[in-house]
Specification:
Blueprint (H helix, E strand, L loop, with lengths): L3 E4 L7 H16 L5 E4 L6 H9 L2 E4 L10 E4 L6 H9 L3 E4 L3 H13 L4 E6 L5 H7 L6 E4 L2 H5 L8 E6 L5 H14 L5 E2 L5 H14 L4 E5 L5 H11 L4 E5 L7 H5 L3 E6 L5 H12 L6
Helix pairs in contact: 4-5, 8-9
The protein binds iron/sulfur cluster.
């Protein structure tokens, strides 16, 4: 059986991730001999993190760990404002590798927030980007990951709100949430455009490929939110979809059953892993 493999053009690093890793590489070059830390993982990919750990980059969890002569690189997802302020006060050298689009979302939230206007943030409550975003708001903040969960919140139609999203969220859902809030809670709701197009384009291509294949592989860290959503978007097209981190998770016997296989990857998946899996799929009997 001939096996057709379709590789997504949008698979792999987005601009924000490439930029963050470039800044980390430059820091390693420029600050040889100094301790280099990232506050939380620089990106959500275990293979990339292993590489940097072997080069001496430490992930700090305790804010007191770095000393004034040390360098802290802020990850692509950004960090809470209070944390950044603590580091600055302690005169730790900071290299800000926050993705420019996440930075824009943080600053938009800061600009539109006031004590009497509360933030409605469509995002994953425990995601580091979301923890960073809410720190830029002054009033109350409400974080929810679906319209259903927003409906469970105790929102008051006498109060004013503004709506934003984690950069990697789904635009259609965001639109439905906006409609709901404007209709039921706050007709004057302000809506901030914080969703990143890299995610939308990647998701649209995944949908398009998923419609042409009978099996889909989505590659990326299991803890990567954008990869998990990418897998869901593909699966919603009614095909079997596997979210994997490396080639070793694939079962050749399972793959042998499928004539058309689609392959895409999240924004924090390095090229060498995607290429490794693509070559493996091409090497299967009938692969092309
Ligand atoms: S997905 Fe978009 S917002 Fe997130 S790091 Fe990449 S470019 Fe930045």
């Amino acid at each position: 059986m001939t096996k057709k493999i379709i590789l997504a053009q949008t698979a792999g690093f987005c601009m924000g991730v490439s930029l963050a890793l470039r800044k980390l590489d430059q820091a390693l070059e420029k600050h040889r001999g100094q301790n280099i830390y990232t506050l939380g993982p620089i990106i959500h990919n275990p293979q990339v993190l292993e590489k940097y750990a072997s080069l001496g980059v430490n992930i700090i969890k305790d804010i007191d760990q770095p000393q004034p002569q040390d360098v802290v690189v802020i990850r692509a997802h950004g960090i809470p404002l209070e944390t950044e302020n603590i580091l600055r006060k302690r005169q730790i050298q900071i290299i800000d590798a926050t993705c420019p689009k996440v930075k824009k979302a943080q600053l938009l939230i800061q600009k539109h927030s006031s004590l009497s206007k509360h933030l409605l943030l469509y995002g994953e409550p425990d995601h580091p980007e979301v923890r960073g975003l809410v720190s830029y708001a002054q009033g109350k903040t409400y974080v929810f990951d679906s319209l259903e969960n927003l409906q469970k919140l105790n929102l008051n139609s006498n109060e004013h709100y503004f709506l934003a999203a984690q950069t990697t969220q789904d635009r259609k859902q965001f639109y439905a949430i906006k409609q709901f809030v404007q209709k039921k809670i706050d007709p004057y709701l302000e809506v901030l455009d914080t969703i990143c197009d890299a995610t939308k384009n990647r998701q649209e291509e995944a949908v398009q490929i998923a419609r042409q294949v009978d099996f889909m592989i989505v590659v990326g860290g299991k803890n990567s939110g954008n990869t998990r959503r990418l897998a869901k978007v593909a699966q919603d097209q009614g095909i079997t979809c596997m979210h994997i981190e490396t080639k070793e998770e694939l079962n050749p016997l399972e793959l042998a059953k499928h004539a058309k296989i689609g392959l895409t990857a999240g924004a924090s998946t390095p090229d060498f892993i995607i290429q490794d899996i693509y070559n493996f799929l091409l090497s299967l009997p009938g692969g092309k």
